[in-house]
Amino acid sequence: MSHVVSPIREKLVTGGKSYSDVTHDICKQVEGEPTKEWKWAFGISSIVFIYGAYCLFYTWWQGIGVWGLNKTVGWAWDITNFVWWVGIGHAGTLISAVLLLFRQKWRTSINRSAEAMTIFAVLCAASFILAHMGRPWLAHWALPLPNAFGSLWVNFNSPLVWDVFAISTYLSVSLLFWYMGLVPDLASIRDRATTKGRKFWYGLFSLGWTGSSKTWARYEYMSLILAGISTPLVLSVHTIVSMDFATSVIPGWHTTIFPPYFVAGAIFSGFAMVQTLLLITRVVFKLEDYITIEHIEMMNIVITVTGSVVGIAYLTEFFIAWYSGVEYESYAFINRATGPYWWAYWMMMTCNVISPQLFWSKAIRTNLMVSFFLSIVVNVGMWFERFVIIVTSLHRDYLPSSWAMFSPTMYDIGDYIFSFGLFFTLFFLFAKYLPVVNMAEVKSVMKGVSSNFPEKKKVSKKTEE
Amino acid sequence: MSSTTNYILGVYDDEDEVLHAVSEVKSKGIKIEDVFTPFPIHGLDRAVGHERTRLPIAAFMFGVLGLTCALALISYTMVFDWPMIIGGKDFFALPNWIPVTFEGTVLFTAFGLVTTFCISNNLYPGNQPDLLDLRITDDKFVMAINVDKNKKVSADDIKKALKDSGAIEVNVK
Q1: What's the pTM?
Q2: Could you write out the DSSP letters of every residue in chain B?
Q3: Smallest Cα distance from B42 to chain A, Å
Q4: Which of A48, A231, A236, A371 could form a disulfide with A421 if both were Cys (CB 3.0 to 4.6 A apart)?
Q5: Matching CATH number, A19-144+153-396, of 1.10.230.10, 3.50.50.60, 1.20.1630.10, 3.40.630.40
Q6: What value of ipTM does the predicted structure carry?
């Protein structure tokens, strides 16, 4: 019939689940009391968040002089962290939009948490944009609003203005996509609700969803169009972030390879972060039947592919620096690999280029502990990539007398800690109060791919009679 | 749905069965009001007899609107209101405007599309629908038949048709 059962595909949902089991398994953690593990995790991330919030408050209060910047290195951890978080934020939209367009059914059980992660990561990135403005209360100056300076407008030729538009569009469209995906599942919780509070809140946000075939048909079209516009959107965002650097004339930044190289790096680090979170979530919420080894393996394959693209980009940059014959460009790259920041460069090379190649072995890419460890290694490497690009290109400029090194202060570190606190606090709140797996989508792909599905159904039918 | 209407509900527990049942029930001259399902079933809306949605057209229109607004704003500010030479470029530096124009187009398309979707399906915060069966959002597929719109077929015949087509329960609401 409408479902084609492929004999070679692995099962996407294991354990012979029925539709009702899916609803029950996913709603369980929303409806039950918070578990002890959750309380600990949430408690620790809140403490981290509060400490970070203090550091960020102090930064806002005193100004960015509290950072370790000097007149040579005028951009360091703030922008490194910003680019790192935005990059991580790319995976959610990629999984839900690009894999939807490619009809990859394995996306269904991971897209919800990946999209949530996207939104939280972009919020973390936004905190660094605001902080590095120095006077965050004037953030609206980045928008083309009529003002008392004769209406002095923003410069639409500037990549920094493009960035404001790209990030804010990306955040709002991702939020919209994620929320519309949640509506049918919120209705499921509403219809199961036993308490007044749950009935009210989930009822309010499920917008009166009925599940009529007409609504579903329109919903499918809407998802498809949103996926269609989100795909170029997600590619545009990191392209524009890379242009913040590439349109300048600093050796090491001024390269045309930046847009595709940044996009590949973003997918790479984003998938690694999704992997880290999924491996924790599946254990904490006992979702092993929904997030299977097959999913982990698929993710690892994407990590290997994008990691290799990033590796080729590193080598290409080096080659072009030599082949161009521009001595400043050549110096910038030789200094990266052999200068005072050699350790950051080789950290980046090891973590991003060598470590994902281990996934060529099936035993390694299906091993959970190794996958978890490598997913963190990849994100450490991707942080160093941005650090290398930003700090090593700046720290030795054209004038040797102004050469300098950068050392972070406690507020550089504290503001970075803030973003982790924010990210994990939001993620744990999401994991407790919203369904972490898209139930409607999982149900829609189960029949073709779930193990023992027809047998299980016959049994349940008999018991009902 | 108003509570004064009489509905006969056929409850199914399999998506393929309900899709078959739709054409089977229709072939007996019974008009189906709608089918409610926990997840989208491809082809079900067409089988019930709903017209193809015009949402893509709306999305395109919003996209065109976004593109126009973005270009109008940028050209007004950069060419007419306060022209400045930046990097030796023309005032009308169209290639530089592509990023913001693109983002504007996407933003208008997404919000216009979702707003249109919500309005056309009567979805809004605080809407409390009179649900026909609470198991629709869990694991049951419910075919709703409006008795008042099926004067020619008796209620018993409708119930029989639903049972014959594979319904595991037939309820009246």
Answers
A1: 0.90
A2: --TTS-EEEEEES-HHHHHHHHHHHHHTTPPP-EEE-SS--TTHHHHHTPPPP-HHHHHHHHHHHHHHHHHHHHHIIIIIIS----TT--SS-HHHHHHHHHHHHHHHHHHHHHHHHHHHTT--TT-----S-GGGGTT-EEEEEEGGG-TTS-HHHHHHHHHHTT-SEEEE-
A3: 8
A4: A48
A5: 1.20.1630.10
A6: 0.91
